[in-house]
Amino acid sequence: MNSAIARLPIPLPPLSNETLDSYLPRLAQRNYLARSGGLFKLRGTELRLALHQLTGVSDIGLATALPQVRFSEDRERWPHLNLAVSARAPIRPACRLCAATRGTGSDTKVFASHEQVICQQHRRWVGAGILKCSADQQFSIAPVGEVSRANVRHQHLIKTYGRGSTHQRFHDAVAALMHWHDWPIFARDPRIQQRRNQLRIQAASSTRDPRDVAAWYPNAVAFTALLLSYDRASEGHTGMQRRETLRSAVDRFELDVVVGLRPSGATSPFIALLLANDRQATTNEHAEVEVADGRRHRCRLAY
Ligand SMILES: [Zn+2]
């Protein structure tokens, strides 16, 4: 590729946070380029320059939309990239409606941070990270405003407590709620009941049904908030102070997270999470997470 490269007849721009494995083939397909062509052999700055020439998308536009052609020096030139989704984040299908507006099929893939479970533009549940959702399973959350509000709260937690700590505690909260998912008291929580009705969920939904996940996502965010505030409140506490903070957290759980469920005993996931905090086991921001291909990895929770 060189500076004389011609603009493509159909210069498709990438979707926000699209992977190269998604973008390059669809750009090639729409323009009848061979998959064995030069474009697919380029990497790094050469690839970004070629894409700029082929599509007319600006350098900053490509660095913003495509995490895999973004480089460390770009963050100094364009500070907004410090908040952008990284290429280490899990991959999920793009919102089908976003993809359709760009003339793209349902196989379009994007990198997504753990809180990017909703397409805010189309008010659709798209899932992310451990809350997986296939393109075919995406659905409207328009009837359930509480899910969108919980997502705003989730973003606020990231601003307040940091991305790594919030991701870790959200992961903890989701794992614990999945533990309680089939308990009758979980289904009796009036807010979960109401959201399940609004989303027309059958009573026997599994923990992996994205509609059911959306119904208890606000509980997971409330649980995350409780864990993060407990972490902060209990810093430096010992003895009686720590017991008081723990009792207050249990009271709040019963009111704010799952109504009527009062965790007790060291084997309870909730108490185990608080004790893990006491052992400072959650401060290293590493945990096992499931990524898009189904494999499990230990990785740094920084996306
Ligand atoms: Zn969308």
Give your account of this protein's structure.
It is a single chain. The protein has 303 residues and is mainly α. The chain folds into two domains: 1-84, no CATH class; 145-300, no CATH class. The chain has helices spanning 20-30, 44-55, 59-65, 72-77, 96-101, 145-161, 163-180, 184-188, 190-198, 210-233, 239-257, 269-278; strands spanning 91-93, 109-111, 118-119, 124-125, 139-140, 286-290, 296-300. The chain has a three-stranded antiparallel beta sheet with strand order 3-4-5. It has a two-stranded antiparallel ribbon with strand order 1-2. A two-stranded antiparallel ribbon has the order 6-7. Helix 9 runs antiparallel to helix 10. Mean pLDDT is 85; it is low at 279-303. Bound molecules: zinc ion (ZN). Zinc ion binds at residues 95, 97-98, 119, 121-122, 124.
Which strands sit side by side, in order, in the main sheet? Answer: 3-4-5
Structural class: mainly alpha
Question: Could you tell me which ligands this complex binds, including any ions or cofactors?
Answer: zinc ion
| SS summary, helix count | 12
Q: What is the CA-CA span between the terminal residues?
A: 33 Å
How many beta-strand segments? Answer: 7
Radius of gyration equals: 22 Å
User: Major β-sheet, in short?
Assistant: 3 strands, antiparallel
